[in-house]
Amino acid sequence: FRRVLFRSIGRDDAGAAEFCATKLKDGDYALIHYNDGLHSLPPRITDEQFGVGLSAMLKHLKTVTPRVIWSTTTPAPDRNNTLGPESPNGAVVTRNNMSKKIAAEHGGPVIDLYGLVEPQRETLQGFANLHFTPEGSKLMGQAIAARIEQALEKK
């Protein structure tokens, strides 16, 4: 297990290739779980940059390992939002819908963290918080771990 901080979804094809060649060159990865979280919401990058960047990253991550799993972004509060007024929860929904389509185009599975959290959002996150309660973190961790284990069993 190795955690690599990406924060690179806005990269173009050349940037994604460079990232994979430099940051992931020293590993033999059985699987990569990828999520950009709230770091790629407007106004940081546009929808077009997001689409191009995610597609490029998924393409190049698959050159590192054929097993790449994408996770959707969790809900963002519309109030007390440290991301700014341009990044309400509606932007998260838009980007999640885009990311599901892009991941499907690359043949990759998706863990829907948004769908997991939203029905219990008040107890798992709260409506004015970007971060999660211990219960919320545990639930997401269990969902991610189960999907990774399932993918690794399919060797």
Q: Which key features would you list for this structure?
A:
single chain; 155 residues; mainly alpha; three-stranded parallel sheet; globular
Please provide a written account of the structure.
It is a single chain. A 3-stranded parallel β-sheet has the order 1-2-3, with helices on both faces. The protein is built from 6 helices and 3 strands. It is mainly alpha-helical and 155 residues long. The mean pLDDT is 86. It is 48% helix and 6% strand. β2 (68-71), α3 (89-105) and β3 form a beta-alpha-beta unit. The two termini are 17 Å apart. The chain has helices spanning 13-23, 47-64, 89-105, 113-117, 121-124, 134-153; strands at 32-34, 68-71, 110-111.
Sequence-ordered SSE layout with sheet pairings:
Blueprint lengths: L12 H11 L8 E3 L12 H18 L3 E4 L17 H17 L4 E2 L1 H5 L3 H4 L9 H20 L2
Parallel strand pairs: 1-2, 2-3
Summarize the structure.
48% of the residues lie in helices and 6% in strands.
Helix/strand class: mainly alpha
Unreliable spans: none
Gap between N and C termini: 17 Å
Q: How many strands, what sense, and barrel or not for the largest sheet?
A: 3 strands, parallel
Mean pLDDT: 86
- The helical percent reads 40-55%
